[in-house]
Write a structure and sequence with these properties.
Radius of gyration: 16 Å
Strand order of the largest sheet: 3-2-1-4
Structural class: alpha+beta
Order of helices and strands: HHHHHEEEE
Oligomer: single chain
Largest sheet: 4 strands, antiparallel
Strand content: 15-25%
Number of helices: 5
Number of strands: 4
Distance between the termini: 42 Å
Length: about 160
């Protein structure tokens, strides 16, 4: 084993019960998100609540209360820290779907944004990012060259 893997393994073994459960939940959510992104986009979009166009003027969301901010921070940490270590690609869309699922389980609304970089027509650059109450969750910072083309805003169940 290489030194970085041993270091990560040591870190994982030192996690407390809450963090271990959060990492296990993030692992399950990322595996399911990866499987979902293998579906045709129209099926995935329907599962995520339907793609809607972005508003002409972005609304200013009021920040979530401190207890929700702490939950969002923990979920962001678990998903973003775990994603690079998985044996499959878990990029921006999978991370956003996984974090959205975890937030939804806790009754926290979120918005999953989809954007494209139209400055280079010869190469399609796409990105997904997630926020809740204006608080970044995954996919940040967002490149200013990206233009939001749609969003999933179904509230948490």
């Amino acid at each position: 084993m290489t030194a970085p893997i041993l270091h990560k393994l040591g870190t994982a073994l030192r996690l407390g019960g809450h963090d271990r459960r959060l990492v296990a939940e993030a692992l399950a959510a990322l595996v399911v998100a990866r499987a979902r992104t293998l579906l045709p986009f129209r099926v995935l979009a329907r599962q995520l609540g339907g793609l809607t166009p972005p508003p002409p003027v972005p609304a200013v969301a009021s920040p979530p209360p401190p207890d929700v901010r702490a939950v969002v921070h923990d979920i962001r940490w678990a998903v973003v820290a775990l994603a690079p270590w998985l044996p499959f690609r878990s990029l921006c869309l999978q991370q956003a779907i996984a974090a959205r699922t975890m937030l939804s389980r806790r009754g926290i609304d979120s918005v999953l944004h989809l954007g494209v970089d139209r400055s280079k027509p010869e190469k399609l650059g796409a990105h997904a990012w997630l926020d809740t109450g204006g608080m970044p969750v995954t996919g940040y910072p967002v490149d200013p060259a990206l233009v939001e083309v749609g969003r999933f805003t179904t509230p948490a169940r």
